[in-house]
From TrEMBL:
Keyword Transmembrane helix listed: yes
Classification via CDD domains: TM_PBP1_LivH_like, TM_PBP1_LivM_like
Keyword Transmembrane: yes
One annotated GO molecular function: branched-chain amino acid transmembrane transporter activity
Lipid bilayer topology: Multi-pass membrane protein
Pfam families, sorted: BPD_transp_2 (PF02653)
Recorded GO CC terms: plasma membrane
Protein's name according to its UniProt entry: ABC transporter permease
Length: 604
């Protein structure tokens, strides 16, 4: 029991270091920095390289990581975040997601994707007390964490620059009027946050023993959960949240196994959001400008085609399967499947103005529902397909039902947890889903007695479902319901003043988006004929969101264009296959900086 508690405190200390930096940045800039975990990976991989290839000791390695990550934090704010000042906070959020993709996959390209042992910069498991083995690295890490927290507290409390940070956090405009260099203070906040993340990467590597460049994403998301549990923007809350989450995870995994990790972590997030949405030590008042909600509607509006233009496009799309070979048709199936999910997402993240970061969850539920109905209940495909969409919508709606009464950014955070919980439940429900082994032998789609076993046949099916999705979504957008969605997304307070139940309409838009994601999942399952939980990861959620940002968050046709560019182009050109997600990240950042309204939209 004591060894589990000790392990939880060690892991919790690492989470706390990363979460403190995240909360500091959030408090000063109102930016939820989703690249924080990727900076952990940068520190970890630099320490591995210096320790393994150059034989550096802990002190020079520590200094090198500190310098590199400090520069990285400064560059990220100056080059990417600061230019977005004045735009809706969601722009900066999405930009940090893009930066995280660039860093994660850049590390993978530079160092290789393989798992490798971390060098023994400090002794591990060389000490024993009360039957619990631990190492010098653990003592140093906990000591460093405590000293860092106390030092940061003293700096913010008594230091001149720290007091300027606190003033900027409370009211940037008033701080500027008082002569505080707000831009420099924001730079300093990003530098401190990046350093804390990079240094924690060294100790995460020592504790885990084996590392790979993609470890940072998981750590960063867990640290974000810790910061949210403690209260975004609260430094003490980040410490408490990190330690609490580390201990809860340790005992949960001890009892239920490592497969329950995501369910424990993100289940705790959802429970906290329902019980105390501001976090354990967060401010009782809501944030002034919600960082995880809003759209780019102020910067552009969707381009619409005349009826004959839509007809020509539909005919051209349906014709492509008859001219494509197997390879091109295989690429086309991926483009169409992701486009279906993205078109549905425009209703909630575009029209209704609510960012959704966990669409891989409904996608997974639809895929597994259709696979189970086909393989175990022997339902025909044409029945399993819409049933999968309905099941995905119901599951998503039930799991998010308690959170729609909150403000937008809390809902967005909840969708992260809901998406992860859906996949975690699938992994744990082994009697039904086969757990991590996945489901094999899923039959090819069979339509009116014809089995669609060729790539061209399956591509034609996907195109037809995509066209039906476009027709439904466009009809919704032009109907009264669509206008209400747009009113809610454009101005929540004005909509509520008109007695519009904004939470209920966002919940409905989310259910519709989950339905179409479920359809996409069903098509994917029957065309892969095998699925497992690893397919439905956070990269899938980010990719679907990136597609609509690229095409135009409020443009269904833009979602199709975005899918062609992001899914089709790298496949067709066969370039940089190992760096594809890196290219997604670069493209996401460039679009937000220079074409925020999307490719298939015009400035308003």
């Amino acid at each position: 029991m004591f060894d589990v508690l000790f392990a939880g405190l060690i892991h919790g200390s690492a989470y706390a270091l990363v979460a403190v930096g995240m909360s500091l940045i959030f408090g000063v800039t109102n930016v939820a920095n989703f690249a924080q975990g990727s900076i952990v990976a940068v520190g970890m991989m630099i320490a591995w390289w210096l320790g393994s290839s150059w034989g550096w000791g802990i002190v020079p390695t520590f200094v090198a990581v500190l310098v590199v990550t400090a520069l990285l934090g400064l560059i990220m704010n100056v080059a990417i975040i600061a230019p977005l000042e004045g735009r809706k906070p969601i722009a900066a959020l999405l930009a940090t997601i893009g930066v995280g993709q660039v860093l994660d996959n850049g590390l993978q390209v530079v160092f290789g994707p393989q798992t490798r042992p971390f060098p023994k910069l400090l002794q591990t498991y060389n000490l024993q007390v009360a039957g619990v083995r631990f190492g010098t690295s653990d003592i140093v890490m906990v000591t460093l964490a405590v000293l860092s927290m106390l030092g940061l507290w003293a700096f913010l409390k008594f230091g001149k620059a720290g007091q300027a940070i606190r003033a900027t956090s409370q009211d940037p405009e008033a701080a500027m009027q008082m002569g505080i260099p707000v831009k420099a203070i924001r730079n300093l906040s990003f530098v401190i946050g990046a350093v804390l993340a990079g240094v924690s990467g060294i100790f995460v590597g020592l504790f885990n023993g084996n590392i790979n460049p993609m470890n940072g994403g998981t750590i960063g998301m867990t640290a974000f959960v810790a910061a949210t549990i403690g209260g975004l923007g609260s430094i003490p809350g980040a410490v408490v949240g990190g330690l609490v989450l580390g201990v809860v995870e340790a005992f949960g995994i001890s009892l239920f196994g490592d497969g329950a990790h995501d369910l424990i972590t993100f289940g705790a997030l959802i429970i906290i959001l329902i019980v105390k949405p501001q976090g354990l030590l967060g401010p009782k008042t809501d944030v002034k400008s919600e960082p995880l909600t809003g759209t780019f509607l102020g910067g552009g509006r969707a381009i619409t085609l005349p009826w004959w233009g839509n007809l020509i496009g539909a005919v051209a799309l349906v014709s492509t399967p008859f001219f494509f070979n197997d390879y091109l048709s295989g690429v086309g199936t991926q483009v169409a499947i992701y486009a279906i999910a993205a078109v549905g997402l425009t209703l909630i993240s575009g029209s209704a103005g609510q960012t959704i970061l966990g669409m891989a969850g409904p996608f997974a539920v639809g895929a597994y529902a259709s696979a189970i109905l086909a393989t175990q209940a022997h339902w025909p495909f044409l029945v399993a397909l819409p049933a999968a969409g309905v099941i995905a919508a119901l599951v998503a709606s039930v799991l998010t039902f308690p959170v729609w009464r909150f403000s937008g950014h809390y809902v967005a955070i909840a969708t992260i947890g809901v998406g992860a919980v859906m996949v975690a439940i699938i992994r744990l429900a082994e009697p039904l889903t086969k757990g991590s082994l996945g489901i094999q032998g899923i039959p090819f789609p069979k339509v009116f007695g014809v089995t669609l076993y060729t790539q061209q046949m399956m591509y034609l099916l996907d195109v037809i479902v995509l066209l039906v999705t476009l027709v439904i979504v466009m009809r919704i957008r032009t109907a009264h319901l669509g206008r209400v969605f747009e009113a809610v997304g454009s101005d929540r307070e004005a909509s509520e003043a008109l007695s519009i139940r904004t939470g209920a309409y966002k919940a409905l838009a989310y259910a519709l988006a989950a339905f179409f994601a479920g359809l996409a999942g069903s098509l994917l399952a029957h065309q892969y004929t095998y699925i497992d939980p690893t397919i439905f990861n956070s990269n899938m959620s980010i990719l679907i969101l990136t597609i609509i940002v690229l095409g135009g968050m409020n443009s269904p046709l833009g979602a199709v264009l975005g899918s062609i560019v992001l899914i089709g182009a790298p496949e067709l050109l066969r370039f940089a296959s190992d760096a594809r997600i890196l290219l997604y990240g670069v493209l996401l950042v460039l679009v937000i900086l220079f074409r925020p309204q999307g490719l298939f939209a015009r400035k308003g």
